[in-house]
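Reopening this one. Same input as before:
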Amino acid sequence: MNEVLKTIIEGENLSTTQIGKILGMDESAVEEELNKLRDNNILLGWRPILNPEAVEKERVRAVIEVKISPEREGGFDRTSERISRFDEVESCYLMSGGYDLLVIVKGDNLHKVAAFISEKLATLSGVLSTATHFLLRSYKEQGYYLGDKGHGTDKPAVSP
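Same output, byte for byte:
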C-alpha cells in the first residue's frame, strides 16, 4: 500500500494551526475545542473515505445479519460489544426488524471471512443465527460516488 495513503488511514489529521487558519480561529481555541470533543467521546478519530475497489483489490467485505439472544440486565450490549472487539469487524450496529445486529466484516479472502463467521462469530454464546452477504462492488461510500468521473453523474429524474 502507498505510504502516504497508509499514513492517512492510520490517523494523520490536520494540525491545530491548519484548522485555525481554515476557521479563522486561534490555535489554542482550536486545541481546546478538540480536547472537549475527545473528552466527550464525540471525536473518536480521523478517517479518509477510500474507494475500496481501487485500494483493497484483494480484500473481501461482507455484511452479516446476526440474531442474538438478549441477556438479563445486559440486553444486547454484552454480546454486541464482544462481537465489536474482533479485528475482522469493521462496524457493528444494533438494528430493528428481522435481525438484531448488522455486522460489517473484512478479510484477506473469502475463506478467511467465512472461517471468521463459522469459527468465531457463529459459535459465540448468545448468537442464534447469522446470514452473510458478500459485498461485490461499491457504488457509493459515505456519500461519495465511486464511479468514473464524468460517467453516470446524472441524478435520477424526479417523477411527479
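So the earlier flakiness isn't reproducible anymore. For the record, The beta strands are 60-68, 89-94, 101-107, 127-134, 140-141, 144-145.
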